[in-house]
Amino acid sequence: MSDEPAVPGSAPLIGRALVPGTAEGAVLYSSEPLSFWGGYDADTGEIIDRRHPLAGRTGTGSIMAIPATRGSSTTTAVLLEAIRRGTAPAAFLTRGPDTFLALAAIVADQLYGRAPPVIALSREDYDTLRGILGARVDATGAVRPLQGTDRRQ
């Protein structure tokens, strides 16, 4: 975690911690769901689905904001491999519960002793992420924009 403070006077977004934990990083925001099977390279952390708005971006260490996953349980397998390799996002912010992300994080915690937090936000709170470049996630499910990264101000 950096020493960069959260935005003073800015109310945090409060979500439901499906998998609690802490993380901090750049926010990769998309209004489109992502399929990790064929859409995320577990070797490099690159989003490889060329039709996705985040194509070519690297998810490693980011706070990945996707409304949901797309596809099947293979998302869990790809994400588990990315967590094992250290190429996974640091946290996931979703628009409501996503069982595939939560399952991957829970299994990763059991297998590897580490898991990215998975936070389910309301539709309204999720949509405000569009203007946030960096955030800190805490174990309660609070998401706080980092100072200097909130475009909404």
Give a written overview of the molecule:
This protein is α/β, with parallel strands linked by helices and 153 residues long. Helix content is 21%, strand content 22%. The chain is built from 3 helices and 8 strands. Strands 1-8-7-3-4-5-6-2 form an 8-stranded mixed sheet. A hairpin with a 4-residue loop joins strand 7 (134-137) and strand 8. Helix 1 packs across helix 2. The protein is globular and about 35 Å long.
Stretches where pLDDT is under 50 for at least 5 consecutive residues are 1-5
Number of helices: 3
- Average pLDDT confidence is 91
SS elements, strand count = 8
* Strand order in space, largest sheet: 1-8-7-3-4-5-6-2
What letter string, H or E per element, gives the SSE order? EEEEHEHEHEE
Radius of gyration (CA) equals 14 Å
Task: Quote the beta fraction.
Answer: 15-25%
Question: Helix- and strand-based class?
Answer: alpha/beta
Largest sheet: 8 strands, mixed
**CA(first)-CA(last) distance:** 23 Å
| Helix percentage range | 10-25%
* Principal-axis shape: globular
How would you briefly describe this protein structure?
By secondary structure, the chain is an alpha/beta fold. The chain contains three helices and eight strands; from the N terminus they run E-E-E-E-H-E-H-E-H-E-E. Helix content is 21%, strand content 22%.
Question: What is the element layout, followed by pairings?
Answer:
Layout: E1 13-14, E2 16-19, E3 23-29, E4 63-65, H1 74-85, E5 91-95, H2 99-112, E6 118-121, H3 123-128, E7 134-137, E8 142-145
Parallel strand pairs: 3-4, 4-5, 5-6
Antiparallel strand pairs: 1-8, 2-6, 3-7, 7-8
